[in-house]
Specification:
Elements: H1 8-24, H2 26-34, H3 41-57, H4 64-78, H5 82-98, H6 106-124, H7 138-145, H8 154-171, H9 195-211
Helix pairs in contact: 1-3, 1-9, 2-3, 3-4, 4-5, 5-6, 7-8, 8-9
C-alpha cells in the first residue's frame, strides 16, 4: 500500500472538520455533560476548535509541530475551561514533539497521539480507567503502537480506529469517575458514558476521515 503521509494541508483539513463536527455536536455534548457536569462541554469544544482552525488556516507554515502548537495555544486562550485547557495542552505538547516535521508517516501519527494524550494526562493528573477523556483514546493509541500501517490499507486502518474509539467510549459506562464534579457522585457515576470520551471519539473519527481523504480544507 502507499505510505501514509500527512502534510500541512491535511492537518488544516483536520481542524476544519473538527470545528464543523464540534459545532454539529454542540447540543448533544451539552446534554451529555449536563448529566453530572456543568453542561459547557459543547460550547467549549465548538468555540475552541473553531478558534484553533481559524488560527492555522491562513498560515503558510509547513512545520507541523508549529501548526499544532499554534492550534493549542489559540484554543487555550479562547476556552480557558478545564476541558479546553486539557485539550489545548495536548496539542501544544504534540506540537513540541513534532517540531521540525513537515509530514507525518505512521510513526509520526503514533507520536502525535502519544504526546497529545500525555499532555492531557500530565496536566490533568488522570490515568486510564478513571472515566476521563483519556479513556476515549486507549484502544486507538494501542492500535497505533502495533504499527499496522505496513500490513493494512488506509481504509482498514481508519475503520479500525473508529471501531476502537467507539469501544473505548462504551467502556467508560462501567467506570467509576475519579475526577471533576462527577466524581462526587461515586457509584452513581457508573452507567453513563463519559462525555470527554465522546470528544475523544470525535477526534479519532475525524482523524480517520483525514486518512481516507474525506476531510477537505
Amino acid at each position: 500500500m502507499p505510505a501514509v503521509s500527512l502534510k500541512a494541508q491535511e492537518i488544516k483539513a483536520f481542524f476544519t472538520c473538527m470545528a464543523e463536527t464540534m459545532q454539529a455536536n454542540k447540543d448533544r455534548l451539552i446534554e451529555m455533560d449536563s448529566v453530572f457536569g456543568d453542561g459547557d462541554l459543547g460550547l467549549t469544544m465548538s468555540k475552541g476548535f473553531q478558534a484553533a482552525s481559524t488560527a492555522i488556516q491562513d498560515s503558510e507554515e509547513p512545520d507541523l509541530g508549529k501548526l499544532f502548537y499554534l492550534a493549542g495555544k489559540t484554543m487555550a486562550s479562547s476556552v480557558p475551561s478545564t476541558m479546553g485547557t486539557l485539550i489545548a495542552n495536548g496539542w501544544m505538547q504534540a506540537g513540541k514533539a513534532l517540531k521540525g516535521k513537515t509530514e507525518l508517516d505512521s510513526a509520526g501519527i503514533t507520536l502525535l497521539f502519544e504526546t497529545f494524550t500525555r499532555g492531557i494526562a500530565e496536566l490533568g493528573g488522570a490515568k486510564p480507567g478513571e472515566k476521563t477523556v483519556l479513556d476515549g483514546f486507549t484502544g486507538s493509541l494501542f492500535f497505533l503502537k502495533t504499527n499496522p500501517f505496513d500490513s493494512l490499507t488506509v481504509d482498514e486502518i481508519a475503520q479500525r480506529l473508529r471501531h476502537k474509539a467507539n469501544e473505548d467510549l462504551l467502556a467508560t459506562a462501567n467506570m467509576l469517575a475519579r475526577h471533576g464534579r462527577v466524581a462526587i457522585r461515586g457509584e452513581a457515576s457508573r452507567g453513563v458514558v463519559d462525555p470527554g470520551a465522546e470528544v475523544a471519539r470525535l477526534i479519532i473519527e475525524n482523524f480517520a476521515d483525514v486518512l481516507e481523504g474525506r476531510c477537505a480544507k
